[in-house]
């Protein structure tokens, strides 16, 4: 039965749709990433090349010297008693200081943050983190996964929810056994696709950005300063992707439940998108603890990792409860409907 249900789910049409989705995902991954920063990315990268791998203590001498030079260069005046060479040198230093000022301000703020963390016994290090930040802090709507739910998972369940349901229900395996197998096949399919999506994203990120310092502490980036876990960038990525897999299973079970209840593919697909996406639109107004109470509260599921351990445990419990309750709801809906 499992092999038969899997062959129903992975039809030639499904394979073609998946190939299109993967192609689109890879194409999107290679699109230029937008940096919401007020300083020069190139200058910031220059500073990180000098400071990479250093802690606040190790970088203190260089940063204080650079700060003093910038202040001197910005406040220097060209006077008439200077030679042309001296005037040219002052003007050149002023131009260079103006080019570097905004980026150095970001570096100096990071340095002060590192000093605070070292007082707490932590040891963040400098590295070029802008690409990492875009990759790890991206929690926008996963439109391709929503399309997969609407285009593959919903029809898979609604096809057996019409007149054929009455015939299936009369057979020995047409009740709880069948729906359990269908849910298991759909969940396994969702896990596999999500893992492949995450792997494709990671490969595109590595090829496009060529990032370094995979073992740097995640709290080396100020965005993750509230993360109380001693995680490296690699470990955080793996944990984030694990959360994404759990979220995808819950989203698939939501799709299954709505498909079984309403048995119309188009209407069920519309409801799936609404149930998942509407909470995402209003989720920014709610505390993180409440956002995890909805599948759509965080379309990716890794936001709780940025915060404290109790909230992380709460988020894990919330996702697991979603999966268990939705699984039970799907079985009851299948077995009790006419």
Overall description:
With 338 residues, this protein is mainly alpha-helical. Helix 7 runs parallel beside helix 10, helix 7 runs antiparallel to helix 11 and helix 10 packs across helix 11. The protein contains 13 helices and no strands. The longest helix has 36 residues, at 84-119. The protein has helices at residues 2-9, 12-29, 41-51, 56-75, 84-119, 130-136, 143-158, 164-170, 176-209, 233-262, 265-282, 288-291, 309-336. It folds into two domains: 2-32 and 137-335, no CATH class; 41-119, no CATH class. 70% of the residues lie in helices and 0% in strands.
Radius of gyration: 27 Å
Give average pLDDT, whole number.
80
- What percentage of residues falls in helices of 4 or more residues? over 70%
Strand content: under 5%
**Derived structural class:** mainly alpha
Domains counted in the coordinates: how many?
Answer: 2
- What general outline do the C-alpha atoms trace? elongated
Number of helices: 13
End-to-end C-alpha gap: 23 Å
Sequence of secondary-structure elements: HHHHHHHHHHHHH
The count of β-strands is: 0
- Sketch the major β-sheet: none
Given as residue ranges, the uncertain stretches (5+ residues, pLDDT < 50) are none
């Amino acid at each position: 039965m499992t092999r038969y249900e899997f062959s129903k789910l992975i039809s030639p049409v499904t394979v073609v749709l998946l190939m299109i989705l993967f192609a689109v995902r890879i194409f999107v991954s290679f699109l230029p990433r937008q940096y919401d920063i007020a300083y020069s990315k190139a200058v910031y990268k220059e500073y990180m090349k000098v400071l990479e791998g250093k802690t606040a203590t190790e970088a203190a001498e260089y940063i204080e010297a650079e700060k003093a030079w910038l202040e001197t260069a910005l406040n220097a005046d060209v006077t008439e008693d200077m030679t042309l060479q001296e005037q040219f040198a002052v003007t050149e230093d002023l131009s260079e200081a103006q080019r570097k000022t905004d980026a150095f301000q970001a570096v100096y703020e990071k340095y002060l943050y590192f000093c605070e963390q070292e007082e707490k016994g932590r040891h963040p290090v400098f590295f070029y983190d802008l690409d990492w930040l875009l990759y790890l802090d991206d929690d926008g709507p996963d439109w391709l996964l929503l399309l997969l739910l609407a285009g593959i998972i919903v029809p898979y369940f609604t096809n057996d929810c019409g007149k054929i349901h009455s015939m299936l229900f009369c057979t020995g395996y047409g009740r709880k056994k069948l729906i359990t197998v269908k849910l298991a096949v759909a969940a396994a399919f969702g896990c596999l696709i999500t893992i492949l999506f995450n792997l494709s994203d990671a490969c595109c990120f590595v090829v496009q950005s060529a990032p370094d310092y995979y073992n740097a502490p995640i709290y080396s980036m100020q965005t993750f300063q509230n993360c109380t876990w001693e995680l490296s960038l690699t470990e955080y990525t793996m944990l984030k992707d694990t959360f994404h897999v759990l979220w995808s299973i819950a989203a698939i079970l939501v799709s299954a439940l709505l498909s079984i209840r309403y048995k119309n593919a188009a209407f069920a697909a519309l409801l799936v998108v609404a149930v998942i996406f509407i909470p995402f639109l209003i989720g920014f107004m709610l505390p993180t603890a409440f956002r995890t109470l909805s599948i759509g509260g965080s379309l990716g599921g890794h936001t709780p990792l940025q915060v404290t351990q109790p909230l992380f445990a709460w988020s894990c419990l919330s996702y697991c409860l979603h999966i268990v309750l939705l699984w039970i709801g799907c079985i009851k809906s299948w077995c009790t409907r006419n």
